[in-house]
Amino acid sequence: MSNPNIRRYERELKKALRSPRLGKRISAAFAQSLAPLLEDIPNPSYDDLVDAFGPPEHLAQSLLQTVEIPQPLSLRKKLGLAICVILAIFAVGGILISVWNTPEEGFVLNSVPVFPVKSTENCYFIVDDPFTFSDSHWDQPREMASYLVIVQNTGTVRTNIFVTYSKHQPPHTFAVPAGETVAFAVNNPRLGPHSVAFDTPDGTLSGTVRVLLSDSPL
Question: Quick one: pLDDT at residue 90?
């Protein structure tokens, strides 16, 4: 309402109630009582409102008798509601933890597939590194359904490969014999950081690692 006198009267009315929970109901009841007055006096003064309804504190007592006061929750109901909320939080948290800790399932392919040189948005290499004592890294995006680790060992000793994807799960491990190439695939991978580490019996490293991402299972 644009009339400042009406706003003042309503503020004092709510203040006299001392019950924020009843604010909206009292405002609605006051507006309903005010409508006939506005038909006769479209822009009433504060004194007009007092003459019509009495002082705000008196009207507050009258309206309290006509407005249903919501009953507060009992201690038992409050406790029951709190327990339900806590159980719901634990249930959701348990589901999230279960999903987050679900291990990846990987497998070594019988043969190394041949991929086109040109990358597309549906299938592309995200890692193409030589063996080093530093890990090779990538972030697994949500839209990609799988990844393929292709390891070519050009050295003279076996190279052990460790693909890490979680702090709470053991890494994928597989070995690549000297002079050979092995492809390791994972479908439905975990999102986020992944890394590939290399280890050999004599500490020498020679070879390359490539990681292919695909939007379809391998």
Answer: 58
